[in-house]
Amino acid sequence: MQTPAQATTRRSVEPKGTPCRAKLPLWRPAIWRSALLGGLLLLAGPTWAALGGNLASIASDQQAWQATHSTSTLPGTSLHTLTLPNGVTVRQYLDTSTDTVFAVAWEGPVLPDFQRLLANQFGAYQDAVRAQRRGVHLKTNDLVMDSGGMMRAFSGRAYLPARLPAALNASEIR
User: Fold this and answer.
1) pLDDT tens digit sequence for 56-113
2) For residue 128, what are the contacts with CB-CB under 8 A and spacing of at least 6?
3) Which listed site, 123, 131, 142, 163, has its alpha carbon 20 to 30 Å from 36?
4) Does some domain include residue 34?
5) What is the model's pTM?
6) Burial level of 53, CB count in 10 A (0-12/13-18/19+)?
7) Segments forming the whole domain that contains residue 126
């Protein structure tokens, strides 16, 4: 049998009439929220202005790279030029009718982040690098890519031949 003093020390601090429930530590809900947010971000995929990206992804690249941005117009295409603080210039060709980045080109003292620029086509680039000694020259039904140069003078281009607008010639991507 409990004494009244023992019963008092075991009582919950909740107001009368509130059912007693097990208390979870405060950090557990934060873990679940973080896990849920992380899962949603993984499902959303990258928002880079890679091949197949859109206009919003170009703005995302500009912010991520802290680059200056300029835009010009070609037939059926808007050309977005980003100049990065490390001296690399990345040009992204956006088909205005489909809001899709169908080509990228670069030049500068270092190579750009190809994983970011090529997105789903990055695996084909890696295979080409393993197979070739210098530079990358790749031509498939899905991707055309030329990349080369020497120390502090790199340049190249990559484009999706199936998404190339009829009004634009591939030789204009540079």
Assistant:
1) 989 988 998 899 999 999 888 999 999 999 999 999 999 999 999 999 999 999 998 8
2) 136, 137, 138, 145
3) 123
4) no
5) 0.69
6) buried
7) 55-168
Q: What are the residues whose beta carbons fall under 8 Å from the beta carbon of 126, sequence distance 6 or more?
A: none
Per the CB < 8 A criterion, the answer to whether 114 and 121 are in contact is: no
Question: How far apart are alpha carbons 81 and 84 in whole angstroms?
Answer: 10
The first and second tokens of residue 146, run together, are: 């030329």
How many distinct structural domains can be found in the chain? 1
Query: Which SS3 state, helix, strand or coil, does residue 140 take?
Result: coil
Amino acid at 162: A
120: exposed, middle or buried (Cβ count in 10 Å: 0-12, 13-18, 19+) = middle
How many residues belong to the chain? 174
Pull the structure tokens for residue 86. 């490390």
